[in-house]
Amino acid sequence: MPKFYSKTARGFFDDEIHGEDMPADAVEIDDDQYAALLDAQTRGQVIVPSPKGNPVAVDPQVLLTPEQLAARLSYAVSAHIEGTARALGYDSVADAITYADEPAVPTFQAEGRALRAWRSLVWQAAVPALEAVKSGAAQAPAAADLIATLPAFEAPAA
What is the pTM of this model? Predict the structure, then answer.
């Protein structure tokens, strides 16, 4: 049963089902290509038209602007910071750093100060990479790769 792909509709069509309602720009694809595209889609890729209108599977990141890629990386850095604070039992890094100037519980104060300083160091290290991605001067690294380059949190001595 022949399959078709339309770049204007960005979808697949079947001549037995769609018949005359098929878009005029639909191009025929073979069963192997159709199966490969669906397999790629299940692995997280996105099906888009090539310049000639043929369907191709691409990594979703290639569809994002440099600004969007930088924003995703920024979110990942924020999530890394927040996750570190939560691992120490705080609701957020903002919650933790409120203890930095509170001497009533020295352990909380030390953790708050350490998290506040570490957060600043993380952003100091991350911002140049984010700006390079945003400007198009560098390709976006995987979030895990960027995070691996950032300063590690060092918990204060108990």
Answer: 0.65
